[in-house]
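Long-time lurker. I teach an intro course on protein structure, and each term I like to show students one example going from raw sequence to a predicted 3D structure in token notation. This year I'd like something fresh instead of my usual example. Would anyone be willing to generate the tokens for the chain below so I can use it in lecture? Attribution to the forum is fine with me.
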Amino acid sequence: MPVKRSKNNTFWTAIAVFTLGVCSVAWNFDWLSDVGFIGLLAASLTLSLMATQFLLLEQHRRGSAQNAMQREAAKLKSQVKLLLTQAHYDNLTGLGNRNLLHDRFQFVVERCMRSKASFALMMIDLNSFKSINDTYGHSAGDAVLIASANRLMASVRASDTVVRLGGDEFLLLIERFEHGNDVFKLGQKLIDTLSEDIVLPSGEIVAVGASVGIAQFPQNGADMPGLIEYADQSMYECKTSGHMPLEFA
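-- Reply from a regular --
Happy to contribute to a lecture. Here you go:
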């Protein structure tokens, strides 16, 4: 961006040009004696140098101010990005949170209503998390949550959404499946994956296990609270019985 010239800049530029012009004319027409000319030249050059230094300092100041503004703008942009990330993602696991779920849910509902398609919500609860947390401490509990989150992410497609609702509860938004049994098979796969051993930072080996509940749109609910309630009830039935239903009700 070019530096905007101020009135002070114009004044000092005129001074510099004028003094150099006087020296040039005096030299060419020999108006002054050698001594007088040298004195005028010295004074003129000094004044010209002062004007030039002022202009350079002014441009540097303006350039520094512009650079500072650019740095502040970049810093503000970074802070906004951080706030948006914190507003939509879980700090511990890096998964989405309820805000992200709400945004994705509205988008998927609108798309499915246009195409008359279906999607599913899967509620997941870790079975033995509390006992692991109480026995080995909160750092061990955090390690279990992070490992479980990574396994969930690795088990679904890029188009699906995995969020942490809080504590040891997770929810998956599963898009575009052909048959209800496909979602059931995914649920069973998640149970098997989350039941595998987890090595804690201390070297201890634990197994947490999981219960999964499923709700299908629009059969089990037309809005997010209704579908979450249905999936939550289905998850507790899985926890009580020890297995998932073989198909959607």
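Some talking points for your students: DSSP finds seven helices and six strands in the chain. The first strand starts at residue 119 and ends at 126.
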